[in-house]
Design goal:
By secondary structure, the chain is α+β, with helices and mostly antiparallel strands. The chain contains eleven helices and 13 strands. 22% of the residues are buried.
Length: 334
């Protein structure tokens, strides 16, 4: 059945599409995590080495803020609820420098709602989670990064699903190659090399526009969200490649089998048998003075056109029609 050629190409397109989606999938936001160093920041802004503080010292003025007041000022309207005891262990293990994390990754999954609520209310990306560190209170500085692809986060955080992409590509190629190909040795059919080449061209065209759409988005949530118009536009362009692969499927399913009494025509959707005894006549299809195929005029008034461009082993079909004594008719413009 020709439908198997449609299934072959569907498997290829779905598999490659799934590969590209998982390869480029990225969350709408991630977290940049640091151990807040308010004492260090206070020294840089209010310490003795700061020019403004030296001037105050010479004038005999007291510092404007204490460390505690500076901390309270910096965390005002940015505090998350105090973390449970387990956060203290996490706080102590934080490395120097920034750490990036998904909102769904422990331990932040437990406070995801509070983080998103805090960002929505204040529209300030940086917030602080207070934790008990012995006798004092420490702060985990959490920055809500809403454009992860522009951040310095490692690829495994920005593109967390890439490890799942390869099986989709492997399955697509295996199914395309392993779904049985119909034999074309004893019939007129299109070249397998031409079919593979056109499939590759169609797949390249369609996947290029899908990859482009995923690449220019800030996250995969945008693809069917705020930037839907761009998705529709590039999707229409990519459909050219999909239609090319469907046309190639029609080529792969095309068969003409000839015998002394009948012709058997097969395409993507159905097969049809034409008894040569029911044929009134046949002639050539001509385009720009060049013969490009044949037509068969049946007694019921129907005409079947067979274009032999790119078709292998078509000559035995012409010989079978001639051997059956089918009358010749005037050539027909293709």
């Amino acid at each position: 059945m020709g439908i198997i050629e449609l299934l072959r190409r569907m498997a290829l397109m779905i598999g490659v599409g799934g590969f590209l989606w998982l390869w480029m999938e990225s969350p709408a936001a991630i977290l940049e995590v640091n151990r807040a160093d308010f004492a260090g920041r206070y020294q840089r802004e209010y310490g003795d080495g700061h020019p403004a503080r030296r001037a105050e010292s010479l004038l005999g003025e007291a510092p404007r803020l204490s460390v505690a007041e500076f901390t309270a000022k910096e965390t005002q309207h940015r505090l998350l609820p105090e973390g449970a005891p387990a956060w203290s262990e996490y706080y102590r293990k934080l490395p120097a420098g920034s750490l990036y994390s998904s909102l769904d990754q422990a331990p932040f999954a437990a406070v995801r709602r509070q983080i998103e609520s805090q960002f929505a209310q204040s529209q300030r990306p940086t917030m602080y989670l207070p934790v008990r560190d012995g006798v004092r209170t420490g702060y985990i500085e959490i920055s809500y990064v809403y454009e992860p692809r522009k951040s310095k986060a490692p690829p495994e955080v920005v593109f967390p699903e890439r490890h799942r992409a390869w099986p989709w590509l492997a399955a697509a190629l295996l199914l395309y190659g392993l779904i049985p190909w119909r034999s074309s040795a004893a019939c007129a059919a299109y070249s397998r090399i031409a079919i593979l080449s056109l499939d590759g061209l169609g797949l390249l065209f369609a996947s290029t526009f899908l990859a482009l759409r995923l690449w220019i988005a800030n996250s995969t949530a945008e693809v069917f969200g705020s930037e839907l118009g761009v998705t529709v536009f590039l999707g229409i362009l990519g459909m050219v490649g999909v239609l090319l692969m469907l046309w190639t499927g029609q080529m792969a399913a095309f068969r003409v089998r000839g015998s002394s009494s009948a012709l058997r025509l097969e395409n993507l959707w159905r097969g049809k048998e034409i008894s040569l005894a029911e044929v009134d006549g046949t002639g050539h299809l001509v385009r720009n003075g060049i013969e490009t195929g044949i037509f068969i005029h049946c007694r019921d008034g129907g005409t079947v056109k067979l274009d032999w461009t790119g078709v292998l082993r078509f000559e035995p079909i012409v010989q079978a029609i001639s051997a059956a004594g089918v009358p010749k008719m005037q050539d027909l413009k293709a």
